[in-house]
Amino acid sequence: MNDPQVSIIVILWNQVFYTKKCFETLFKYTNTDFELIIYDNNSVDGTKEYLKTLDKSKNKYCKDIKINYYDENIGFTKRANEGFKDAKGKYILFLNNDTELTPNWLEKLILCAESDAKIGIVNPLFNNNLSKHFNFSPSSLLHPNQINLIVEESSLHYYPDVCTCVGFCFLVKRNVYNKIGMFDESYGFALGEESDYCMRANKAGFRTVCSDDTYVYHIGKASFDLSLSKTIYENNATKKFLSQWAEKWHKQITICDRKNELQYLRNEISKYNYE
User: Fold this and answer.
1) What confidence score (pLDDT) does residue 182 get?
2) pLDDT tens profile 12-49
3) Do residues 265 and 154 make contact, with C-beta atoms less than 8 angstroms apart?
4) What is the rounded distance in angstroms from the CA atom of residue 223 to the CA atom of residue 4?
5) What's the Cα-to-Cα distance from 64 to each of 34, 87, 88, 127, rounded to whole Å?
6) What would the pLDDT profile of 65-79 be if each residue is shown by its tens digit?
7) Torsion sign over Cα 108, 211, 171, 224
8) Bridge partners of residue 33, in order along the sequence
9) Which residue among 114, 125, 251, 259 is buried most deeply as judged by most CB within 10 Å?
């Protein structure tokens, strides 16, 4: 079997309801050769039983499904690094299970990545407003596919640089991995490792960009183990990140804010905000 174009890595801990929706849209809307590699961090809510029903015949582009079950929840970062090592694709894509994908999502991300040899990491647009440089919060009254169509039809294909991409739908070119390696496991359980990875990619000469013709719906931190104190992890990750990257990161934010290259899409989508 030839290596797939994309290795899609999904790391799970419970939340089977979201996982079902994610995989439903994955199989429905993915039209590029891919392998699906799943790491289950000891889910106890029916996730394991659901995973056993997955069948690659649901999508003719799915070359393989590999499911890894574990007896311990060690978080995202270490499992993600297993994904880097197991992936066979030209592209490696980390996908959160609390996402809903939209038509042509993966093809458009790849077209963006291939538009410039310097592009190393790609994000789609998304609804979560936690990332200042995206700052894209469309109306919740619209279905993700409606928003995706508006974005697709309105896009000028700027593929703007962003300060750091967000890990919910994180497309990495293999040559980035070959050059800078895996996520920094000193970030711990989760949070911050993808921002650090983007800064390292920038330092190595790669661009981190937004595919401004692609929209993916993201709930946000739905599979985070609250017993591990999300606030503590966020604070620790922020301190660690800023201790290393503060000056460069703030400089990049200033540049992104000044260019404001996604404002045209915000203006377009605001026409449909009736809330």
Assistant:
1) 97
2) 999 999 999 999 999 999 999 999 999 999 999 999 99
3) yes
4) 27
5) 8, 11, 11, 30
6) 999 999 988 888 999
7) negative
8) none
9) 125
Residue pointed to by tokens 């809307």: 29
Q: Report d(CA 129, CA 240) in Å as an integer.
A: 22
DSSP letter string over 103-135? Answer: TTHHHHHHHHHHT-TTEEEEEEEES-TTSTTT-
Cα–Cα distance, 102 to 56 (Å, whole number): 19
Q: Tell me which residue of 63, 254, 91 sits closest to 177, measured CA to CA.
A: 91
Over the Cα atoms of the chain, what is R_g?
Answer: 18
Q: Are the CB atoms for 109 and 122 separated by under 8 Å?
A: yes
Q: What is the pLDDT of residue 83?
A: 97
Amino acid at 139: S
- Tell me, what DSSP letter sits at residue 13? -
Dihedral sign from CA coordinates of 132, 137, 143, 148: negative
Query: At residue 49, what is the residue type?
Result: E
What is the spatial distance between Cα 35 and Cα 7, in angstroms, rounded to a whole number? 5
Record the tokens describing residue 17, joined without a space: 């309801």
Helix (H) or strand (E) holding 252: helix 230-259
CA 264 – CA 212 distance, rounded (Å): 10
The tokens for 127 are 């609804």
Average pLDDT over the chain, rounded to an integer: 89
3-class secondary-structure state, position 39 = strand
Extract the tokens encoding 263: 């404002």
Total residue count of the chain as it appears in this document: 275
For residue 95 the two structure tokens come to: 């996908």
